[in-house]
TrEMBL record:
InterPro entries: NAD(P)-bd_dom, NAD(P)-bd_dom_sf. It comes from Skeletonema marinoi. Residues 63-297 form the NAD(P)-binding domain. Residues 1-20 form the signal peptide. This is Rossmann-fold NAD(P)-binding domain-containing protein. Keywords: Signal. Pfam families: NAD_binding_10.
């Protein structure tokens, strides 16, 4: 019997696929039913989403004057969505936004105070969802050195009392008992829309990985932010995520890779799960994704990472909707298997920027391009970076 070349190629592809899902200590062949499930039936004649302004009453944005939060507010206002900006510095907010805009309400809010956050939402004139874009300290270019040092020192000495640890769960608690948000446009989607969208960070779980997993997935476990973990920020983010999941409200957690304003914007986002993504994404694209998540029921109850493929030549424009990509992702309550995470890692490593594609060789403050040219980054050589370090167990 003659075996066709196409048949041989198919067998080789199958063997390659199954081997990609083997762990270093376990070489069993994984059942295809474990790896793949029948996706929900999709049709191309779904009615288009209505304007976001018809789906939300008012969005509370925590960290509204931050580098990402400001972009989120601007996008919401451009879509005629009322915004309640929760800020620490009202003068800064008045200069960042048009205070005469009737859609914008600026409220001075202590995000480190549970009571103040809950009161802000309750008095927010119909706030039915929130966006968390705040962080314990900032790299904003207009922030003074003293403000940066003070913020970092405060975070280091009181990480469990940081705004991530206090303010984010308070947002969830404040919205937990509010009516569910749904996509009422004739769609048969059963999942509700998220009430709280959290801007987190890729890498938050990696400091807690086993040594074996860190070694096997060195390309994402050995990057500078994970290796150094300044003031334990990743652990605080991880704990804040968990508290949001447990607060009883519908949520979405988005963990972008490296925020880079020089990376081409309007590029195609690539989403993954398992906390294995490494790469870059433009901050404006992150803001667009965060706003889009407010009207994407497929995102509810899910945590996922994202980087983007540069669209400088126009070959990889973003999809018109996030729904199809996010529909394929796994709900947090179901969990991502170790085999799937490792297979995803193998793919994501091929999307790294630069020629060497060696994220684990980077120093803090060093770019992929500098690594390719063997140039020292702004914080010094790897292992001697001038950056605060917190050792993890």
């Amino acid at each position: 019997m003659m075996i066709r070349p196409t048949t041989i190629a198919a067998l080789v592809a199958l063997i390659t696929l199954t081997s990609a899902f083997q762990t270093p200590s376990n070489t069993r062949i994984i059942s295809t039913t474990t790896l793949f499930s029948t996706p929900p039936e999709r049709t191309t004649d779904q009615p288009p989403k209505p304007p976001l302004s018809t789906l939300v009453k008012r969005v509370a944005v925590a960290g509204a004057t931050g580098r990402t939060g400001k972009l989120v507010v601007q996008q919401l206002l451009s879509q005629n969505v009322p915004v309640l900006a929760l800020v620490r510095d009202t003068d800064k907010a008045m200069s960042a936004f048009d205070p005469t805009n009737e859609l914008l309400t600026i409220r001075k809010t202590d995000l480190g105070s549970k009571d103040d956050v809950i009161t802000a939402i309750q008095e927010g004139e119909g706030v039915d969802c929130a966006m968390w874009c705040a962080t314990g300290f900032s790299d904003a270019p207009d922030q003074s050195i003293w403000d940066k040092v003070s913020a970092i020192f405060g975070f280091a000495t009181n990480s469990q009392g940081s705004i991530d640890a206090v303010g984010l769960p308070a947002l969830g608690e404040a919205l937990a008992k509010s009516p569910k948000r749904t996509l009422a446009n004739g769609s048969d989607k059963s999942a509700p829309l998220p009430k709280v969208v959290m801007l987190s960070s890729a890498g938050v779980t990696r400091p807690d990985w086993t040594d074996e997993k860190k070694s096997a997935l060195e390309g994402c476990a050995g990057i500078p932010i994970v290796r150094l973990n300044p003031f334990g920020i990743l652990g605080v983010k991880k704990q804040s995520e968990e508290e949001l999941r447990n607060c009883g409200t519908e949520y979405t957690i988005f963990r972008p890779g490296g925020l880079n304003d020089k990376w081409p914007k309007n590029s195609r986002p690539i989403f993954s799960q398992g906390d294995v993504a490494v790469g870059r994404i433009n901050r404006e694209d992150v803001a667009t994704i965060l706003v889009d998540l407010l009207s994407t029921p497929e995102a509810t109850g899910k945590t996922f990472e994202g980087v983007s493929i540069a669209n400088s030549d126009g070959y990889y424009p973003p999809a018109e909707s996030l729904s199809v990509a996010l529909d394929r992702l796994i709900l947090d309550k179901d969990g991502v298997s170790e085999d799937v995470a490792r297979a995803t890692y193998a793919i994501m490593q091929q999307l790294l920027p630069g020629e060497k594609q060696a994220a684990a060789e980077l120093a803090m403050g060093q770019t992929y391009e500098q690594l390719d040219k063997e140039e020292i980054g702004r914080l010094g050589a790897r292992g001697t970076e001038e950056a605060p370090i917190v050792k993890t167990a």
